[in-house]
Every structure is written in C-alpha cells, then in structure tokens.
Amino acid sequence: MMSDLPRDLAEEVFSRLPMKSLRGFRSACKNWNTLFKDRSFTKNHLAQAKAAAAKEFMVVMVIEFRVYLMTLDLHGIHKGVDPSMDRKGKLISLEDSDGVDISLVYHCDGLLLCIAKDYARFVVWNPYSGKTLWLKPRSPHDRLDWYRYAIGYQNSKSCRSYKILRFVDGLHGFDGFVEYEIYELESNSWRALDVTSEWFIEFYARGVSVNGNTSWFAQQKRQGNRHGEIADFLICFDFTAERFGPRLRLPFHSYIGDTVTLSSVREEQLDVLFQRKETARIKIWVTTKNEPKEVRWNKLFLAVDMIPLTYVQFGPSQGSFFIDQENRVAVVFDKDDEDDDWFDRNIAYIIGEDGYFRQVDLGSSTEIHRPFGCSYVPSLALIKQCATRKIKIDYFIFFCL
C-alpha cells in the first residue's frame, strides 16, 4: 500500500507534487500528515518550488474579478521562440463555488492581500500553503473605494510581523476625509495612526512592496483648484516605524496624462515604468538601493519607442508590469488598443530591445477593467492566529484548469 512506503521514498514522491495537491493526502494517512507538518520537508518542497519559479515566471493575475495563477515562459525568445503564458489554476473558495470577486491584489513576501470587489472585506492569502485570513475594515465608510492598501512586515530577531496599512487622505489630493489605520496579523488588532501629509496618491496608484516596506508614486497636494506643474516623487511607508519617509526622487518628471507604474524585481528592487503621452516612448529604471529614507536609481534598464511597433498608450489607471532582467524585456498587462472591441481582449505585451515586440492573448472579458499581474515567489510566510482570540482561517485552493 502507498501508506506503507518508507519515509524517504514517500518524501521523494510528494516533493514532486505541487503544494495544493498535498492537502487531499493529509487525512488519508497519519504518517503522511506528520510528514507534511515536518519543517524540513516543507523547506525542501519550497526550495523546489522556487527553483521551478526561477525557470519560468509565476504570475498572479486578476482578470474579470477572478484571481489566477499563471506561468510565463520567456526562454528562447531571442532565438525565434515565441513567449507563452498558461493558466495553471483559478482561486475559488470552498465555501462559495462561484468564487469571490476580487478587485485589487497586493503582494509581499509570498502573501497576497486581496481586496473584494465591494471593498467591504479583504483577505490575506498564501497561495503556496493555501491559508487565508478574512478581515473587515475597522470603521465603515460610505466611500470604501477611496481607500488605498498595503501589506508589509516588521523584522524582528525571531520572525517577521506582518501588517496591513489602510488609508484615505482626501479625494484626489484636495481637502477631505482623512484616515490612517494599521492592522497587525499576529495580534488581530486595528490601530489608528496619527499621520499627516502634504502629498497625495492618486486613487489608481498601486503601492509596491520591497523588503517589507511599500512605495507609491505621489505628487504634491494641490491647493484649491489650481492647475499647472506639480512636483512628483516616491513616498515609502516604513512598516517598522509605522511612518512615511521623506520624498524620494524619481529619474523623470511626469505631467497629466503620462503613465507611471511601479513594480518590483522579486521584491528586492523597485522598478518604475514611465511613458510620455505625447510620444508613447517607454522608459524603465531599476533601483540599486531602496529604503524608506533613500533611493538610488541604476542606469536606464529599457527605452523603447512604441509608435513603430504599435501605438499603445498604456493606461495610467490599473496598469501593471514586471521585467525579466536576464532577457532584458518588460511584460506589460493591458487591453488590446488596436482592436475595435479593445475592451474584450486582455493582452500581455512583451517589449524588449532592438524592436522586440510580441503579444500574448490572455483571453476576452466582459469588464472594461484592465488585467492586473504581478510576479509571485512562493514562501513559508505564516498567517498566525492570535493567542487570546481565535481568528477564522479558511483554505482556498487553486483548481487546475
């Protein structure tokens, strides 16, 4: 019988299976359940998962309010091999066969913060282990879509303490409702933060996590209805100090209508995509140092004139991308701007040096919202339970497609 296999042979067999496939074996055999709980087995399994992720990008995508796990294969693209992108699974709830509508996703250290479409609840989820923690806002508000979110962590000697930042600071930078609050996963507690600012973050701007802290593209807060040139910069939230750092310089200056989108390289470096509206030229820079109080930019990573390839002005709202440093390409997610029914087709644009340009069709959707994608690296990050109050923890799974 399979349950009589020696431990070393069972470990070898199960190490070749994805984590989601192991959950069904827990109740089948006591020995197997003990094996899956063993820390060394989990670490070895994770190491293999990371090695697989290094060979082909693992991407978490939101398309039509559904969350998918996908793989992107870029090997051989400069030798005539076309890139490919495949859906590996779809996130659905065991308690809701129709799935959960998700509008936004934020990534930090293997954990995803998924914001529900109605903005009235959100979930912290580890796709590798399958554990999720559902949360609700501390204080309700009639305009929940105003809020911005971030997930990060505070480093300590023994472990990482994960936190969620939720805030709103006026509508589009003008005077208005202000609220900053933070949630600690370990203690299951909300706290209000005493934070003020002279800058604002557009409602569509996404924060990006690097080394446990989150950065945003921000601008000088407008005074009244005055227009004109506005200073732009980066703002980074330090999850250890629970404060925003000083303004950090960008390698460009943007104007109304330009596209500015942030991403990260395996959450170790920050990168920024800038596209001027008038020229459609894309430029991407990567940081060599990224801390709450200091940022340093490397030389230009990529500069591409889009007009000879296809006139694509990537939308400033809901935009997303990531880069492959080895192949020196950027993967930008958007709609098909050349199709008469452009809002139906979701596209991954592969853009590189010397005129390299490919499109990967991600399928159609009935929503006008642009697809969102971020690279994913699996981790053993724990969603802890409070010692004094039990937190409801569900299991989500990816059903293979």
Automatic annotation (TrEMBL):
<dbReference type="InterPro" id="IPR050796">
    <property type="entry name" value="SCF_F-box_component"/>
</dbReference>
<dbReference type="InterPro" id="IPR006527">
    <property type="entry name" value="F-box-assoc_dom_typ1"/>
</dbReference>
<dbReference type="InterPro" id="IPR017451">
    <property type="entry name" value="F-box-assoc_interact_dom"/>
</dbReference>
<dbReference type="InterPro" id="IPR036047">
    <property type="entry name" value="F-box-like_dom_sf"/>
</dbReference>
<dbReference type="InterPro" id="IPR001810">
    <property type="entry name" value="F-box_dom"/>
</dbReference>
<protein>
    <recommendedName>
        <fullName>F-box domain-containing protein</fullName>
    </recommendedName>
</protein>
<dbReference type="Pfam" id="PF07734">
    <property type="entry name" value="FBA_1"/>
</dbReference>
<dbReference type="Pfam" id="PF00646">
    <property type="entry name" value="F-box"/>
</dbReference>
<feature type="domain" description="F-box">
    <location>
        <begin position="1"/>
        <end position="45"/>
    </location>
</feature>
